[in-house]
Amino acid sequence: MPDWSYHVLFKPWLSKISPVTYREFLHKNMNRIASLPGGSHVIRFLGREEIAERLATSVGGESIRGPVGLSGKIDPRLTGTKAFTNLGFSMIEVGPVTLESESGCFPEREDGRIRFPDQGESIGLEETVRRLEKAESDVPFLFHLQGSQDELMEIAKALKPFRGIFSISYKEWESKIVDELSEWKPVFLRMPSKGVSDVDRFEGAAGIILEDSGSDGEVEDYKEVLEKLHGYEVITVGGVEDPEDALALLSAGASMVFLAAEYVDAGPGLPKRIHEALLDETPMVYEKKTGWMWYFLFGLAIFLGGILALVFSLTSVILPYDEAFLGISRQELLLFNERILWFMAHDRMTLAGTMISGGLLYMWLARFSVSKGEKWAKQAIDFAAIAGFLGILFFIGYGYFDWLHLLFWLILLPLYVTGWMKSRGLSEKPASKNRRNDRTWLLGVYGQFCFVVLGFSFVLGGIIISCIGVTGVFIPTDIAYLCMPPELIQNFNERLIPVIAHDRAGFGSALFSVGALVLMSALWGYHQEKRWFWWMFLIGGIPAFCAGIFVHIMIGYTTFIHLLPAYIALFFYVAGLVLSYRYLMNK
User: Smallest Cα–Cα separation from 445: which of 7, 1, 142?
Assistant: First the structure.
């Protein structure tokens, strides 16, 4: 559940119910999705919570992917553990783990925000082990052990098989028990950010865990204590409301920051935003060959092909080889029903506009993202390009093979294959200037939502149009515009409908390909102050919308229900540009 869905769709109404119901609804459903075949891939596709290799670190000798963990206060019942491992967390706190289950206190909503109690609930040792085994997590755990010395040993023994580290409250700290537990896993000392300053007396501590005291200015409290704990590995829990807070703590000496109550308000994208801010703080020049120029030329060829198709759609519409296949001339078709020619122009001009827009997107992504070695842009280009190439298969089943499309396909293929080969191994993750959860960021979240819906609508539209092309070819509004049933067209020339169907399938596959490019760009490449991204959507969208709407006006095919999908897409396009302007353009 990325930020664009959490803040726009779920948080407004979930915030009206009790925090516990809110929590369990989200966690259980996320876990169900993660448990489905391919579910983890769906979560990663939507959120792209990858962590750059250069952010890898270690805590207590345990190798971890990055410096962001999840507090046990967020998921005390372990109902969402499997999902959280796919949401950018490098370590997950479990506990407090007690021998028997304890009800504890429940979170409450105060001034519109969720507050967690000091004494949380515990599901007991037996249930904890059962759920951990079921979670099959690939990230280590931070086990918060709680109980008497004998209970601590029993709990630790049961948790020994699981990867991670132990932690014990300063109130339960005994050198003897710590020495015994340390033989199994490193033991960290848990202490509040205020009230305990004498750390030297806690002999044997592998590190320190600072727990928030629930006061304002928690980050500043942490920073003061971190200065005194120089030389220790320190984990902070809570107090991180936005990426700026995490950067401040990590730069002050914290080894990891664990997100707590603030994570609920900030949204599930906070770990990703922290990682991107860290990458922005330590920019890296990508020196390997990226092959971006070949992808750029691939996009340029599509752009020029779209221009050529636009010229044909505005002039003769059908070409000599079309006439040769049909066995009739353009004039004979006009005499039979001039609207058939205009209808074909409508399909071919919308295809041309889509190709021009797609070519622009390919060029922009190649120049500004692939050139920096960013993996997401290469993957978006590869998927969209392969989908476009496979679109040629639609033409084979109609009894009419368009040789111009084949020639175009043969020109594009070597450009794409060369780009693909030269860009293998790209691994860079994008950085972001985003630091605060301010109004600009929130408006940007809504803008991203609009772009995601736009991309999804194009993908869905491409599938529907392609399906129409391979089945009935015409929809009721088409027949109303032509003023002629398909049977009469078939009787006039049995090859005419296959030509029209091939146009529809061609446009459908192109729309799907470009829609996938828009969708993946909106999901993966949307970051604050990326001015080129806003210009890419603005300029890249103009040809498709202008061609798609203008041609309907030009030929008089203005049925409202037929154009309604285009109007809806135009609304999300304009809304996305307006809402994201300040976020992307740094205004």
Answer: 7
- Spatial neighbors of 479 by CB under 8 A, at least 6 apart, are 485, 486
Rounded Cα distance between 392 and 212, Å, is 59
Residue closest to 523 by CA, chosen among 432, 456, 571, 431: 456
Cα–Cα distance measured from residue 560 to residue 116, given in angstroms and rounded to the nearest whole number: 52
Contact 264, 116 (CB under 8 A): no
H or E, element range at 145: strand 141-145
Residue 111 has pLDDT above 60, yes or no: no
465 membership: H or E segment, kind and range: helix 439-470
- Element of type H or E holding 142: strand 141-145
- Name the residue type at position 145: L
Q: Which residues contact 583 (CB under 8 A, 6 or more apart)?
A: 440, 441, 443, 444, 447, 528
Q: How far apart are the first and last CA of the chain?
A: 28
> What does the alpha-carbon distance between residue 76 and residue 16 come to, in Å, rounded to a whole number?
21
Burial of 405 (0-12, 13-18, 19+ CB in 10 A): middle
Backbone Cα Rg of the chain: 29
pTM, whole model, 2 decimals? Answer: 0.91
Per-position b or e across 230-259, b if 16+ CB within 10 A of its CB: eebbbbbbbbbbbbbbbbbbbebbbbbbbb
pLDDT at 191: 87
CA gap 210, 189 in Å, rounded: 8
Q: Is 486 exposed, middle or buried (0-12, 13-18, 19+ CB in 10 A)?
A: middle
- The H-or-E segment that residue 58 falls in is strand 57-59
Residue 303 tokens read as: 């752009």
Is the pLDDT score of 348 beyond 70? yes
Contacts 24+ apart (CB under 8 A), 180-187: 180/153, 181/145, 181/152, 181/153, 181/156, 182/206, 184/156, 184/157, 184/160, 185/60, 185/143, 185/156, 185/160, 186/60, 186/61, 186/62
Residue 397, helix vs strand vs coil: coil
CA dihedral sign, ordered 394, 399, 405, 409: positive
Helix (H, G, I), strand (E, B) or coil at 565: helix
What mean pLDDT comes out for the span 366-370? 95
Residue ranges with strand state E in 164-233: 164-169, 187-192, 207-211
Enter the DSSP assignment of 214. Answer: S
Burial (CB count within 10 angstroms: exposed 0-12, middle 13-18, buried 19+), residue 154: middle
Q: Tell me the β-bridge partners of 209.
A: 190, 235
Collapse the DSSP code of 151 into the 3-class scheme (helix H, G, I; strand E, B; otherwise coil) and give the result.
helix
- Cβ atoms of 525 and 379 within 8 Å: the answer is no
DSSP 6: I
DSSP element (H, E) containing 108? strand 108-110
Look at residue 27 in the predicted model and tell me its pLDDT. Answer: 78
Q: When comparing pLDDT for 173 and 58, which is higher?
A: 58
